[in-house]
Amino acid sequence: RQVFTAVLYKTAVVNSVIIFNMDLYGHDVSPPCRPVAMLLNVLKLKYGLKEIDVMEGQQMTPEFIKMNPQHTIPTLDDNGFYIHESRAIMQYLANQYGQDTKLYPTDPKARAKVDQMLYFDMGTLYGSFKDYLFPTMIEGVPLNIEKKLKLVEAVDFLETYIGDQKFVCGDELTIADIALLGSMAFIKGCGYDLYGHFKVAAWLERCIPLIPDYETATQKGVSQFAELVATLVAEPVF
């Protein structure tokens, strides 16, 4: 099924240019874009990557706003079906193309646990990272120690959630792991020391090899983001 799906999304070659039915609008340095790219790779889906530089206002064109009134990235165009919000995109992709995988369980209780961790990522882990770092990057205000401690608390929570499991929702990789991996990759890339978070560190080591072309899908963007932070934030982040 996955092979068929991959062929399906490489639809034509025109003047030596591959035409895809699925396009991902995003940017390497955007943390929410990385989990979507990783999931596309895990599902072996072929897609076109449309780079959107939000600093240049490329998300404000009428064409983009028609796809996404919030003018945010990532945004997915699946043959004319537009969806944004990274975790919603991941849920859609897993439902549509990952039925033969264990990435998004169909059992209501198992799926609820995955959803719980997706929302934990969005509102608590990535949310606290964004709240801590982005005001300094964008507005130049000093880093806030209380917000830093909220981020540390969020990583503590992740350590507890993993516990003795291989992955955050049990012994199988799910889209919750991929979403959280994206957030933790950027947090760690900004200098966060995982000493004392041994379960998180071990979980990262288990997850990364399961992501095809992790270097391009995530690590490249993490490195670029870290360089950007170094130019915009005068004091050590961690």
UniProtKB/TrEMBL annotation:
The record places domain GST N-terminal at: 20-101
Q: Which InterPro entries match?
A: Glutathione-S-Trfase_C-like, Glutathione-S-Trfase_C_sf, Glutathione_S-Trfase, Glutathione_S-Trfase_N, GST_C, Thioredoxin-like_sf
Where in the numbering of this chain does the GST C-terminal domain appear? 107-232
One of the entry's Gene Ontology molecular-function terms is:
glutathione transferase activity
GO BP terms: namely:
glutathione metabolic process
Q: SUPFAM superfamilies per the record?
A: GST C-terminal domain-like, Thioredoxin-like
Oligomeric form and interacting partners: Homodimer.
Q: Which domain of life is it from?
A: Eukaryota
UniProt name for this protein: Glutathione S-transferase
